[in-house]
Amino acid sequence: MDSNIVETLRTTIRDVPDFPKPGIVFKDITTVLKEGDLFRASVNLFLEECRGKDIDKVVGIDARGFLFGSVVAYELGIGFVPLRKKGRLPYKTESAAYTLEYGEAEMELHIDAIESGEKVVLIDDLLATGGTSASAVTLIKKVGGDLVAAIFLIELEFLHGRRKLEATPVVSFLRY
Fold it and tell me: How far, in Å, CA of 31 to CA of 38, rounded?
């Protein structure tokens, strides 16, 4: 991993205090996404982690995980699976509830999105408390996926989210 790229990404990501509620400092990645070279560099970090892992599918978490995950799947020539908020998928789903640092929610995955035994990588922009990611791990395993790794652009280490991901290998490029 290129430490210069990581440091450039770190200085580009904007902190937004008190969003979405008082006391939360939101890590705004739109400052990275709007710059083509930085968006490409961040996608390349994910690609470096995924290459050589014999992955069958990329699962991206709604919504910023879609931005990175779909590009990674495209570049690797494999399928992309959207993990969505409850009520957004049109076919039969499995669901898992979780709590966020600022509320509760439920995630869903199509029951036929992952074949039993397929190797899967989970991608999202941020690992905070781990609630969303833990529900993703539960859903991937519930439909028979073999979760190879969970990969995040940012990890808020002080929230200890990786503890909720069981034995899943976790990779994060920027740690706060």
Answer: 9
Which of 48, 75, 94, 101 is flagged as catalytic? 101
CA-to-CA distance for 24 and 22, rounded, in angstroms?
Answer: 6
Helices 3-12 and 36-50, interaxial angle, to 10°?
Answer: 130
Q: Facing residues of 103 across strands?
A: 100
Q: Which of 162, 174, 165 is nearest to 41 (CA)?
A: 174
| pLDDT score of 100 | 67
pLDDT tens-digit series, residues 63-101: 999 999 999 999 999 999 999 999 999 999 999 998 765
Sequence-ordered alpha helix ranges (H) in 51-172? 64-76, 131-142
Q: What is the pTM of this model?
A: 0.95
User: Catalytic site residue 64?
Assistant: yes
pLDDT tens-digit map of 109-122 = 999 999 999 999 99
Q: Considering 64, 84, 155, 162, which one is annotated as catalytic?
A: 64
Q: What does the CA dihedral 9, 15, 19, 22 come to, rounded to 10 degrees?
A: 140
Percentage above 90 pLDDT, the chain: 91
If phi over 0 gives left and psi between -120 and 50 gives alpha, with beta otherwise, what is residue 18?
left
35 is catalytic: no
Q: Are strands 57-61 and 119-127 parallel, antiparallel or unpaired?
A: parallel
